[in-house]
Write a structure and sequence with these properties.
- This protein is an alpha/beta fold.
- The protein contains 26 helices and 34 strands.
- It folds into seven domains: 12-115, 3-Layer(aba) Sandwich (GIY-YIG endonuclease); 118-186, Orthogonal Bundle (Arc Repressor Mutant, subunit A), CATH 1.10.10; 192-276, no CATH class; 294-432 and 450-473, P-loop containing nucleotide triphosphate hydrolases (Rossmann fold); 482-526 and 588-722, 3-Layer(aba) Sandwich (Rossmann fold); 529-586, no CATH class; 733-826, Ribosomal protein S10 (Alpha-Beta Plaits).
- The strands form eight sheets. The chain has a seven-stranded parallel sheet, with helices on both faces. Strands 19-29-28-20-27-26 form a six-stranded parallel sheet, with helices on both faces.
- The two termini are 39 Å apart.
- It catalyses: ATP + H2O = ADP + phosphate + H(+); Couples ATP hydrolysis with the unwinding of duplex DNA by translocating in the 3'-5' direction.
Amino acid sequence: MTFAFDEETTYFADLIIPVPIPKLFTYRVPRDMVERLKVGARVIVPFGKNRVYTAVVGRIHHQPPNTYQAKYILELLDEYPLITGYQLELFAWMAEYYLCNIGDVLNVALPSGLKITSQSKVQYNPDFDYPELLTDDEVRLLDELKKHSALSYEELGRLVGETNVPSTIKLLVGKRAVIVFDEVREKYVPKMVRKVRLKANYENREQVLALINRLEKSPKQQEVVMKYLSYVPVQNNPLLNRKGLDKTILNQDDEVSQSSLQTLIKNEVFETFEIIVPRFGDEDMQSVEVKLTDIQQKACDDVVSQFNNKDIVLLHGITGSGKTEVYINLIQNALESGSQVLYLLPEIALTTQIVVRLKKVFGDKMGIYHSKFSDNERVEVWKGIVDGQYQFVVGVRSAVFLPFDNLGLIIVDEEHETSYKQHDPAPRYHARDVAMMIAHWQKAKVLLGSATPSIESYYHAQQGRYGFVELLQRYGDAMLPDIVLVNTRLEKQQKKMKNEFSSVLLEQLQQNLERKEQSILFQNRRGYSPYLQCEDCEWTGRCPNCDVSLTYHMRDAEMRCHYCGHKDPVPKSCPACGSFKVRTIGFGTEKLEDQLQIVFPEARIQRMDLDTTRAKNAYQQIISEFEGGNVDILVGTQMISKGLDFGNVSLVGIFDSDRMIHYPEFRAIERAFQMITQVSGRAGRRADRRGKVLIQTSNPQQAVLLKILENDYRGLFEEEIVERENYNYPPFSRLIKLTVRHAEQSISQQAAQRLVAQLTEKLGEARVLGPEVPLVERIRNQYLYTVLIKLERSISPKAAKVFILDKINELLSDKGLKAVTVVADVDCL
């Protein structure tokens, strides 16, 4: 909204503050800020007693608030808005759709580098005149403060060697001996590079030659100039001098005298200067042209054709069919038309290989956005989109919040993946669905890609709501792998199993090692084993905060809770009965890695799971080592299943398939098919050999495993869709899960029962299920009860959500239930 500003008029701004409150707050605009303030700009505002926040301007107007005195905006951070009108519309829609507060959305949407930190500082009060009132501790602390302009609590603690600094400062504040204030600073700091260049009066050829002659009596200084000219040939092109040379290049050169360099700077032969550079590096990658096969070109043409009539198209392409090449072609077309492109990937692990391929095609036109990047790196992508530097971004689910305003295409790769759904904190959004809404507002097209589409997406495509294109042949005539079911029950009866490994799998692994081919082993459980148990009394290590057993991690000699992070050391004997017969039960990736190293001591084995990939570049290092042939066997969780392309992998082993299939959840069969098919797709991606996949199962006759053997996604869909319709599950309904939490089980149960009764009055018993105790009943010392709401597609979701939110607020307004929290998860997985 644009205002004709009037100096005599008082202006107010409604601000979105990144805190869980249900409304915007109104602040007064200072007169010196009136003409500069714009909707979408960030500002600093006081909030509460002693806090300041980064807020975003949502609206500028003239109406003061009715119920409170408007505080002044403290500072304007942006001369031009970093938040677009589309984003503000998106934040409001997400708050309404996902039953949360707009402040929750802003808190997740903005990278922390665009938020302000508020750090309390302490300063000596020069007007203090009563030293006789001070204790020895207070005198010592004041003496330190007098030496500095201001210090933080932490800095003071280090200097005076005390742990009770906050209480001492509190007493000094009461005596008016110190002043406490908040130092506000923006987190984002541009990356600066110090460079060196010849002064302007030495830029042309004659001046350079004259300089070299003049320095004949100072050979070390002459050598510095000659070395600079070898990197920056100013004598051939004076304009090259303007860009200069990174000072670190000369600093690290053994032939350059650093004292001579400093002398030349002092004598104004050279000058130093700083420039802002991107953090992503300017790797000189050879530009690669992507050529499509006839089948890929047809798929690409079909997608374009479908886009003429449909805004959303589903590309069903089997593993190894070359969907990425199709994406690249479509991205190039969109960029050439002047539009922006967003390419979503479900996990960071996927970006490692794909980003390298995309970089070779798109170079520095492409931005990368995911949580493993630092705050500053993410801010640079954000600002790069606003400035027009990046027209194309590859990112994970949080990339949907980026400030695009001219999107032409959004690609959601592996659209079936559960990683697109955020579970905590609010908003609990699904990036695929949010992407569709963004595309609707910006009149962009959406391409959903998957070898194993979600049942919902495939159903919408079959119903004609989405366009539909198939790519059912592997790239380069590579064959689909040979899938074999290994009966572990029979192997155990015949005593052929060795720990967790069937004889068939061990034999195939041995043959692969002899052929110098690579293998991947999949177990979707990290850690050494799910838990420890005493053989005598059946004691099990359990989390004191959550209703779960502690997972044993052998390398760190500890038991961990994967819900709250609680850790216990491994007991030397049973804490309950003192027995030394404490054994591991079950197995995770760490145990598989350990057992493999014993069976194949010469093999090079690597593990890829959450525990081994916490560091920023850990994914890339593991994948690079495997891709370079430095690893023989890669053991991993689901992160190895998605999109990775290794030409030398000829064997994939899959453990614990029965646990995936029998998980108590209505999507279990679909998920098992997707997971096993995706992992299987890592094998045999070259035309000259057929890969092999071994699935260990105690029941080879399970229907879903037979569908996997036949690569029969269509058959799976036809069976699952009947079940979904019979029991009114998506895509025939919308699901909303409400989780009631409280530290006391009886209060949590009472609140959940009351909520169900209130919801049932209008929605009816068929639509409101529960309350039920979830699989994990207690997390972080909070007892949980869940309520599942099923809404038919014919019901207005907006009206139903307003009613649900009213009932939640009504419940929480009861004084006896004030400590109860209710978490809403819309379109829960």
